[in-house]
Amino acid sequence: MSAYIVGVLVPLVFTLILRTSKKEKKRGLPINVGGEPGYAIRNCRFTDAVTTSWEGISTLVELFEQACQKHPHKPLLGTRKLISREAEVNADGKSFEKLHLGEYEWLTYRKSFEAVSCFASGLAQMGHKRGERAAIFADTREEWFIALQGCFRRNVPVITIYSSLGEEALCHSLNETEATTVICGTKELKKLIEISGQLDAVERIICMDDEIPSSISLVDRSHAWNITSMAKVEKLGRENPVEPDLPLPSDTAVIMYTSGSTGLPKGVMMTHANVLATVSAVMTIVPSLGSKDVYLAYLPLAHILELAAENVIASVGSAIGYGSPLTLTDTSNKIKKGTKGDASALSPTIMTAVPAILDRVRDGVRKKVDAKGGLSKKLFDLAYSRRLSATNGSWFGAWGLEKLLWSFLVFRKIQAILGGRVRFILSGGAPLSGDTQRFINICFGTPIGQGYGLTETCAGGTFSEFDDTSVGRVGAPLPCSFVKLIDWVEGGYLITDSPMPRGEIVIGGPNVTPGYFKNEAKTREVYKADERGMRWFYTGDIGQFHADGCLEIIDRKKDIVKLQYGEYVSLGKVEAALSVSPYVDNIMIYANPFHNYCVALVVVSHPALEEWASKKGVSFTNFSELCERDEAIKEVYSSMVKAAKDAHLEKFEIPGKIKLLHVPWIPESGLVTAALKLKRDVIRREFSNVLSKLYS
C-alpha cells in the first residue's frame, strides 16, 4: 500500500514544480529536386544525401575489415549453446519441442574476420568462379553473417532467400539467378533435396551444420552436387588461402528476393554503395551507438531491415547475439520452462522489431497485468496514465524524474522481459499502431524509432528520432534519402491539400537500387532517373508531411477498394485500427466492389477468447468449436467495433460480417510473408468459399 501512496503523491509534486512548454522541432525541410513535380523534403541536418559516414570507405567489405582492425578483441558474433531438446505434451496430447539453451559463446572481431577470410578462400578453392552467384537459404545465425561477408570478399553477389519460402518461389529464385552455390542449414538442405530435380544451375551445397542428412546420396548420384559442411570449407580456405577479389561500390552485393506477398518474388539488385548509404544514414540517427552496445538478432537476415541493422552494428564495434522469434523470451514457445529466453540471456541494449512482434509483447504484458488484478493492476494503470500524460507533454517531459520513479515501482519487471537494458528499439517492415508504439514506449522505458523504407530503397526512407514522442508517424527522411510526394488525382490525394500536403511517396537518393533482376519491364514501371541523374522509386504508398517535416503513411494505392456506392476503403488502414482489439491475433479485410460493405477474416487470439469463455461460463470441447459459437462471434465483433470507433473509422469501413479462424497464420502456412505481412491474394484464394458466404 505504501508504494501506491508514494506513486500517487510524488507525481503530483512533480507536476506542480516542473512544467515546461513544448516547442516543435524541425526535423525535415523542403528542398528543390529534379524529376516529377512534387513536394520534397530532406533531413534538416544534411543538405545533401549521405553516401558514407567513414572517410575512404565505399563498400561493405572495406567497412567490415576496418571494424575488425579497430576492435579485434571485442566480441562480435554470439550464439547460445544447445544443452538439450525435449518433447513436451500438452493437455490435447500434442507434442511440442522445447529447447534448453545455455549462455552465449562469442567470436571476437578478429576471429570473425578469420572465419570470413577462410570461408572466402574455401569458396574459391571449391570451384566457385568469378561472376557466379551464391544463395544463402537459412534462418538468421552467425554462419549467415560469416557467409555473407565471405562472399563479399570474393565479389560474389549473394542471393538472399527466406527460409520459409515455398517450393515454387524457391525454385524460381535459384533458377532465375542461376545460382551455382547454395549455403544453407540442415532443415533447408532437406527442402533442396526434395526439389533437386527442378534446380538447373546448382553445383555446390555448403551446409552450415556439421550434421548432413543421409538422403543426400541420392542427390549426389543424379545431380553431381558437391555437398560439404561450412566448417570444412573454412578449413580448406585456411590451408589454401586465396587473395580477396574486392568489389567496387557499383558492384552488386545482394540480389534480395522479396517474400512474394503478390505472386512470385522479385529479386531486387543492391550495390555495395546502395546498402552502405543506408548503413551510414542510420549511424547518424541511433543515439550514441558504439562498442558498448549489444544487439539481439532474430529477424530474417534475408530481409533488408535485419541485413542493414547487422552491418550497422558490426561497423561500430558492437556485439551481435543471435536468437529466434520462438526463443526470444522466457515464455516463448520453444523455451523450456524455467530456463532463459534469448533476451534474458543476452540483455541487449539495441533491438529491431516488426509490428507483429511488438503487438504480441504488448498483448502478453496486458494479459499478465489483468490476470494479477487488485492493487498491482491499479498501480500499473496509474503508472501508465501518468507516463502517458508525460509523453503527451502535459508536464515537464517524457524522460524526466517521474519516469525513474515509475520504472522502479512498476515497470522493472516488464522491462526484464527483454533483458532490462534495452535503450532503443527500431521498428520497421510494416506500420506500427499508435497504441502499441505508446505501450512499448512507456512500459519498456525506451524510445522506438519507427522507420519506413522498402527493399527497393535498401530500407532507407524515413526514420523517427529518439526524442520524437509522437505516434503514428515514421519520421523525417533519412540522411541518405530525399522523400517526395506527388499527386495521385484518382485517389484524391494532392500536394496542395490542407492542412498537409498528401500524395504518393517517391524516394530518391544513393540508397535507391538499380532495379529488379531480369525484369526490365517492372523496373521501368517503378524506377525513374531524373535530369540530374538521381534515381527515384515510386512506392505506391500514400503519405502526408507534417509541419515539422515528418512523414505519416496514410494509405496504399493497391490496398484501396471502391465500394458499390463510391466509398473508398483502405484495407491496411482498417486492419491496423482493428488489430488493437485484444481478440485479434491477425486480420484481413476484404472488400467486394459490388457490395456496400467490407468483411473480415479474423485469426483469433486463443488466450483472450478462452479467458472470455471461462469468465462467461461458455463451454466448448475445442477452440475450433468456440470460434463457431454465436456468442463468441458477437463478443469479438463488439470489441472490433469499439476499436473502430476509437480510431474514428467511418461506418462503411467497419466490417459488416466477420469469420473467426482458429489456426494461426505463420510464414510456413504460406499465408503471410517471413516479415508477417499478409499475402492477400493467397488468403483470398484459400478462403474464397468463406468470403463468398460472408457476402451471401
TrEMBL record:
Cofactor (UniProt): Mg(2+)
Keyword Ligase: yes
Catalyzed reactions per annotation: a long-chain fatty acid + ATP + CoA = a long-chain fatty acyl-CoA + AMP + diphosphate
Keyword Ligase among record annotations: yes
Gene Ontology MF terms in the entry: ATP binding; long-chain fatty acid-CoA ligase activity
Extent of the signal sequence: 1-15
Domain AMP-dependent synthetase/ligase: 97-517
Annotated pathway: Lipid metabolism; fatty acid metabolism
Key words of the record: ATP-binding, Ligase, Nucleotide-binding, Signal
Cellular component, GO annotation: endoplasmic reticulum; membrane
Family: Belongs to the ATP-dependent AMP-binding enzyme family.
Protein's recorded name: AMP-dependent synthetase/ligase domain-containing protein
